[in-house]
Design goal:
Blueprint lengths: L1 H7 L4 H30 L2 H35 L1
Helix pairs in contact: 2-3
Length: about 80
């Protein structure tokens, strides 16, 4: 991940790396609570998996649609 961040962010690599680490740590703290709530309410692990896959899909689509074009635009701006 650090190489990917460095490739797309010139001059702000530390900022974006910090954001990724923040969201990663937040996910590790929130996921057990959310998973426990889904299992507690539905009494079924299959729903937990569906919720996780759906959430991951939405996050990835948002990253591809919103964040990557902005990072490429900034990287091109700094190259010229």
């Amino acid at each position: 991940m650090p190489a990917w961040i460095t490739a797309y962010t010139i001059g702000n690599g530390g900022r974006y790396q910090g954001l990724i680490n923040t969201f990663s740590s937040s996910g590790k703290a929130i996921d057990p609570v959310m998973g426990g709530l889904v299992i507690d309410v539905s009494q079924d692990f299959s729903r937990l998996y569906l919720v996780c896959v759906g959430g991951d899909g939405l996050i990835m689509m948002a990253l591809v649609a919103i964040v990557l074009p902005r990072l490429k635009k900034r990287a091109n701006h700094y190259k010229t």
